Protein 1
Amino acid sequence: MKPQTFKTRTIAMHGLALFLALGCAGAMAQPTADVEALEAAAQRGDVRALFTLAVKYERGENVARDFIRSNELYCKAAARGDTEALMKLGVIYSIGRGVLADEGVAALLIGKAAEQGNERAKELLQHVSGRTGSVMPACLSEPVAVPAESPFVPVARKDLELLVLRWAPEYSVDPDLVIALISLESKFDATAVSPKNAQGLMQLIPATAERFGVKNAFNPLDNLKGGLAYLRWLMAYFKGDVALVLAAYNAGEEAVERYRGIPPYKETRDYVKLITSVYKKASHPYLAEIVAPSSALSRIRRANY
């Protein structure tokens, strides 16, 4: 294959997106079906119901358009052997619709569909290039087991972990800390909602989401970026003191200042204890230019050290 320039690859990706919108549409057309019946069949694992429902959520046919939900359904259908869903998922990763664009993952998915005899996937292979180290999305892989006594739930969403590894350094936050925090906050469930209305992957309350520019708290990447921005701010505000940062993330920086340290709330103290049992670094680098440190920090240190 001849080497592609950036411009050529860009044109190819636009062609891929056009193929998705036009070339696949006719083959994927399905008779109109009752959405509730489709949902019930999808719950039972019916492959055609999963695929048809994915198309409906993608196009907004008789349901609110929801790319995240659509992508999940395509992945479930692909995991059950549907090569059309596998190829479609590859295109989704190539253009970054509802997921972080990753041409390596796209190549794996489209290549697997081509190996299984999907003719469209064979045509698309020339537009994507593989990369060393790319892995299949988590919904196509087995969950990773952890000891039953762990305070954290098994993390099967390896694609979300990859998002953390990709974006945490951009915000100067240690990915290991973020993974430990998300494991406890939402158990890697991007749709989680707490009794206090904390939402999404990093369990942002609406006020915090708005403060850090999160438009959709249930979009994993949007939520992650908002949570990372908040952690970066807290790191600067408390000069990298991990325990204080975690306490503030759970209870708010005002509570930490008022109580001159970790507030005497059982939830907050357990929260800090659990995360620091996994992430053992007491201090974390911070960007001093983000915000001036808390005026209460010297009093907090005198009270605790």
Note: Residues 162 and 289 are 28 Å apart (CA to CA).
Protein 2
Amino acid sequence: MSVARVTEISATSDKSFKDAIEAGIARANKTLRGVTGAWVKEQKVTVEKGRVTGYQVNMMVTFVLDD
């Protein structure tokens, strides 16, 4: 039997939502062992002078706890 935990993280990018997701997962993997998935809870853009200048995602990251 395994037990997992879910934690919420936020990641940003000036390129795309995909890039923000990949950056968030890469960073989570540096700290958390056993990452098995993520659910993108929210997406947000930053707009300056009518143009999109940033992308932000809030994700629920699932990881399996060590025995």
Note: The longest helix spans residues 17-31.
Protein 3
Amino acid sequence: MKCIYCNKEKEERLFNTEHVLPRMLGTFRENLTIKGHVCKNCNSVIFSSLESRFKEDSEEGIFWQMYNLNDSYQVRIRGEFTKMFFIAGLGDDFFNDIFPFFEYKDGEHCIKFVDQIKIKNYCKDGYLILLIDNSKKIRGSSKFRKLIQNLEGTRSEDVSIFVGMQNNKDRLKLDEAISLLRELGIDYKEKQGKFTGSEGIEGKEVKISVNQNIGTYVARFLAKISFNYFSYCAIQSDMGHILFNDNFIPIKDYILGKKDLPTKEVLISIQQEPIIYDEKTVKRRAVGHTVTFYRFNGEILSQISFLGKKIYTIKLGKMPEELNKDNFGCGHFFNPFNYQFSGMSKNPNKWNNGVQEGFGLFKLY
């Protein structure tokens, strides 16, 4: 067996399952996986690090954590390349430090506030958010013990607590949070508190601003998702051999960190122009993930977008001659809120005809 990324032949036991879209971006009723084509070292060692960097230090990764669809007990913000600022509309900078969350309810994406502990200086410039109710659920587990280790040396002055209270005398949730911190080995010394009633929070409009530079880790992650999708389509077309074409060596070496390329040679454009035809019609982005590939000027390009945000164009490599056909290309939209995905097409004859586009190299996205 041969890994499609490192091109090394290995025993079958050294391969495992690679998800086309990592589970950190959602689970779907039919999870797309590449089985027996990606070795454990590429998958578990290299790709796991890329996923963590994307999750903690990209606009899309941070927004994804704000939905917390996997009901995690923590949010990690690295803060190296992506800075996010919140204005909670409560008239005080103290409350702007609250980390807001999203919920998808009745077809709308709404802001909600969750009881939390905020710990500064994660990875030097970032912070860690502990969701209090979820953190209490992992008491006594290996996750809780690991959290204690990770928080060793945390100073009380780097910790803030935000909990909902009916009035200044209602300390139950606050005392629970302080008790939790002490279980985690943090000798929290209570600061001066500030209070706003529930009527001060409900209906407030939270403004979010983002300053982002695309780091190498994020660019490699985007390239990995693009090549995963292209690989899955090639395998579905019984053309898995094409993945070992020399034209794809540069992008694979870049994804693995074996080759350092200027980011602009891989991530050739960032834009806001929608990919999906319906988005252009209604002039509104769909909150989900879009992945495509197509031919342009003798190159295979991929366009990728998460949660209806920026559209990244990735160059996968020169077009191999055997793929040079008029109907080359494929694209799908993944909806993490209803666990489904659907195919797309640039062919007007296929629009609104009820045909579900499958996966393959020649679907004419």
Note: DSSP finds eleven helices and 16 strands in the chain.
